[in-house]
């Protein structure tokens, strides 16, 4: 992915989190509860955990979670949220620049929710590595933006927003090893910074590794 900033990826994201006391809502990402409805909890890996909304929700719903982010500031906030909600013992936090290092182990669920960046992020490589760490019968869940929000001023004009099929083509996973549980574009309602309504378009990709 192209780099649009002279800072390292870690410097960029540390500065981003230091802009405000809280960047994200603290709630679980919108698509994840529906995707996991009826799925038996096990070991989960949350890629790019941010301030911990997904990791905490997963832990509250019975998952044992490894949550990773590039920014120490984000991890500190996520740890605080986990402690406040009584699930700190169910989450292991690790700092990784996923373009260079990846958590050890295998997982029943690997979740990449809106793993976008305008600085270096080797996304296809990261998602291929993630796929290799999913146990037979486990899920790889990727949700990302199909397009930027209309009010965004921070996304460079050449920042890619690939379709679900383009994402999966980049991953090049063997069809005999992976089942497409759900691959689609989903619309959801959103509210802009000035209260104006708009429609998010999410790419939703749910793949199950065949047993």
Can you walk through the features of this model?
There is one protein chain. The radius of gyration is 16 Å and the shape is globular. The longest helix has 13 residues, at 72-84. Strands 3-2-1-4-5-7-6 form a 7-stranded mixed beta sheet. Helices cover 26% and strands 29% of the residues. A hairpin with a 5-residue loop joins strand 6 (178-191) and strand 7. The protein has helices spanning 9-18, 32-36, 53-60, 72-84, 123-132, 164-171; strands spanning 43-47, 64-69, 91-95, 107-113, 134-145, 178-191, 197-209. The mean pLDDT is 90. It starts with 8 loop residues before the first helix and ends with a strand. The chain is α/β, with parallel strands linked by helices. It has one domain (9-209): 3-Layer(aba) Sandwich (Rossmann fold). It has 6 helices and 7 strands; from the N terminus they run ααβαβαββαβαββ. Residues 45-138 form the Methyltransferase domain. Pfam families: Methyltransf_25 (PF13649).
